[in-house]
Amino acid sequence: MNATAIIQLYVFVLAGFVGYLVITRVPPLLHTPLMSATNAISAISLVGSLVVAGANRGTASAVLGFIAVTAATINVVGGFLITDRMLRMFRRHELPEGEKK
């Protein structure tokens, strides 16, 4: 392994560790409101992982890039689904005709 690969692996492991610590420190009550804000960050992660996966720097880089693309895609889609569900909870329900509040 050359020095560049070791540095890239170090950054990957460090990013995973920091991400895990950040997510586990958020109280469960705040997860849903924060999902809409973190979708933008996840989209940036998705673009970065696509660059890594397509850089053609070796098998390890391609495999780690594929895993990163998969994880970021799941995160983005799940975030949008949860945000949509949260927003549906706040919509006004229409009453049938003839019924008063």
Tell me the β content: under 5%
Radius of gyration of CA atoms, rounded to a whole number: 20 Å
Order of helices and strands: HHH
Low-confidence stretches: none
Arithmetic mean pLDDT: 79
Number of strands: 0
**Principal-axes shape call:** elongated
| Biggest sheet statistics | none
As a percent range, the share of helical residues equals over 70%
What is the number of helical segments per DSSP (H or I, 4+ residues)? 3
The rounded distance between the terminal residues' Cα atoms is 70 Å
Strand-pairing-aware structural class: mainly alpha
Record the SSE blueprint.
Blueprint: H1 3-24, H2 28-53, H3 59-89
Describe the 3D structure.
Helix 2 (28-53) runs antiparallel to helix 3. Helix content is 78%, strand content 0%. The protein has three helices and no strands. The chain has a domain at 28-89. The mean pLDDT is 79. It is elongated and about 75 Å long. It has helices at residues 3-24, 28-53, 59-89. It has 101 residues and is an all-alpha fold.
